């Protein structure tokens, strides 16, 4: 099967998570997301768009708070502005999620929306790496699916080592929706805790992610649990099902959002701590760091298809 036939028979959709805690930043974010749609809908094969639809998931659970007590999720103005911006475009869905975390719950809701659309392969994509969603990268992902891959993560620079070792990251990853749904979707053990560690409330949320110490910081291990459904899919199928992909090119002229030094420092820490958080997640789930490499299709161990 060629790529053109594949996208006709197996519609490909995209899930994009977004939230803006401060109302004064909403307009800028919506303009950025309009650019995201322009980029995602531009790649075509045989005159057909590669991406059939995009669903924006606006995280707006008011229970989540920052250390200073301010809102950690959306201020409540993003979804209405997005709805106004994309009114009449049936290929773009806007969904405000007012109950659930940013890692597991929100994406399981997104899967439900895409299943209703008839989407067969769903790409979870962060707006920060939209410049890597080129036609070349999307074609490589679809080629892997044609060869039998059910999980196709893209090895973004900051997490390249982990992705090539078989640990998918939802920064940029395609999932075969049926397989993911059969193993229960994204695991609640990866859900971001609602309450700080050590509080009475936190003890009521044992299914959520655990807290660990990384350096001088006490952090949760949420945000690395993509490995759990990937392991389950591999075990269920009884064969390697993960195909890591190196990105192919980037959109020239695309500018990323300007962020504060504090947020940049926190983002860098999140990437640096991924392996520690991943190790903790696997240990409490009865896996280890070595096991997932066995889920990688042998011809994709280098991130580029290499026939045996």
Explain how this protein is built.
This protein is an alpha/beta fold and 308 residues long. The protein has a single domain, classed as Spore Coat Polysaccharide Biosynthesis Protein SpsA, Chain A. It is built from 10 helices and 10 strands. It has helices at 3-9, 26-40, 78-85, 105-117, 135-146, 160-164, 177-182, 227-237, 261-272, 274-283, and strands at 12-18, 44-45, 48-49, 53-59, 92-97, 121-125, 151-153, 172-176, 211-214, 217-220. The longest helix has 15 residues, at 26-40. It is globular.
Task: Give a short overview.
With 308 residues, the protein is of the alpha/beta class. It has helices at 3-9, 26-40, 78-85, 105-117, 135-146, 160-164, 177-182, 227-237, 261-272, 274-283, and strands at residues 12-18, 44-45, 48-49, 53-59, 92-97, 121-125, 151-153, 172-176, 211-214, 217-220.
Nearest-integer average pLDDT: 89
- Count of all domains: 1
Total helical elements? 10
Class derived from helix and strand content: alpha/beta
- The CATH topology name reads Spore Coat Polysaccharide Biosynthesis Protein SpsA, Chain A
Task: Let me know the number of strands.
Answer: 10
**Parts with pLDDT < 50 across at least 5 consecutive residues:** none
Any idea what the CATH architecture is? Alpha-Beta Complex
Query: Can you write the helix and strand succession as a string?
Result: HEHEEEHEHEHEHEHEEHHH
Q: What CATH first level would be assigned?
A: Alpha Beta
Spatial strand order of the main sheet:
5-4-1-6-8-7
Helix content: 25-40%
Largest sheet: 6 strands, mixed
The outline comes out as: globular
Q: Span from first to last CA?
A: 20 Å
